[in-house]
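Table S2 (text version). Query chain:
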Amino acid sequence: MRRPSGKPSKAHGGQGQLRIIGGQWRSRRFAFPEGPNLRPTPDRVRETLFNWLAPYVEGARVLDPFAGSGALYLEALSRGASSALALDLNPDSVAALRGHLQTLGCAHGQLLQADALVYLHGQPATPFDLVFLDPPFHQDLLQPACQLLEERGWLSPDAWIYSESETPPSTLGLPGNWRLHREKQAGQVYYALWQRGG
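Corresponding structure-token output:
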């Protein structure tokens, strides 16, 4: 569920709803500010993804550079991630997510209003074990984000990376040491899970 990495669009007052599927906050529902280019990850896709990731989420350090509604971010925290960092350009999205964390009493989620590609040019204090990459489509954000994650030290040696894209995973040109673990298609969206190798 993502917002563009360009200028945030003006709010139009709409509200969407997200539901946490599993973990300690299972079935909790939250509103998020809707807007153009916000493309929610369907519940069944999230359920499939977290079934794939079941052995790896608990205790993981999680990064969500295109947070949008924050559904993947909140789901990972609900399922036992040790910490999670979410980025989004839209101040309304960040404010809504901050409110959700406060409601849940969650102290190990971090949120920043930031442009993902600019932020990823920096270097993390500690690498991440699990990264969600669901950028807006048709803006050429996925491939450069992947290159920055790999080149700037954002990933632990065996990190898992989830991607959503408008084209098949084989066409994405992602780093050569990432192994495609699982892939599926839902409508016009291709989603895939990758594991980083040495």
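Notes on Table S2: The longest helix spans residues 91-104. Strands lie at 15-19, 29-33, 61-64, 83-88, 109-113, 128-133, 155-165, 178-186, 189-196.
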